[in-house]
Amino acid sequence: MATYIALIHKDADSDFGVSFPDFPGCVTAGSTLDEARANAVEALALHIEGMIEDRADIPAPSDLEAIMSNRENRDAVAVMIEGPARTPKTVRVNITLPEDALAEIDAYAQEAGTTRSGLIATATRKFIRAA
Questions:
Q1: Distance between CA atoms of 41 and 67, rounded to whole angstroms?
Q2: Is the dihedral of CA 93, 96, 97, 102 positive or negative?
Q3: How far is CA 87 from CA 24, 31, 46, 70, 109, in A?
Q4: DSSP class of residue 54?
Q5: Sign of the dihedral defined by the CA atoms of residues 72, 47, 125, 80, in that order
Q6: Residue ranges in 14-98 assigned as alpha helix (H)
Q7: What confidence score (pLDDT) does residue 87 get?
Q8: What is the pTM for the complete model shown?
Q9: Rounded CA gap, 87 and 85, in Å?
Q10: Measured between alpha carbons, how far is 31 from 14 in angstroms, rounded to an integer?
Q11: Which of 5, 71, 122, 123 gives a 20 to 30 Å CA spacing to 43?
């Protein structure tokens, strides 16, 4: 998989935010630079997984000069994030959820720029790690 540019932003009194110019809506954050970078790797992988599931085209990486020529990006630090080495096989499953929970999941996923499946996968992985 290709290597993509992530932009790390830091405002006073906030965590380090990470965005991907090639993937609008793919964002994450971390309280430290190391955490932000680690979260960026996971966010990119999940975002690409969701795009593949949705049968969307995966963009080619943009040129660093093109990204940094955008005024909005000049205050950020650019780091390179390797896309997932291999895309795990996607398996369709059927689950049953209360209608209000599904609506809440869909609204949050849309706001976060991800898919329902991507959000459920991320939340489940975080839940398992925390257990």
A1: 19
A2: positive
A3: 20, 28, 10, 31, 21
A4: T
A5: negative
A6: 33-53, 64-68
A7: 58
A8: 0.64
A9: 7
A10: 8
A11: 71
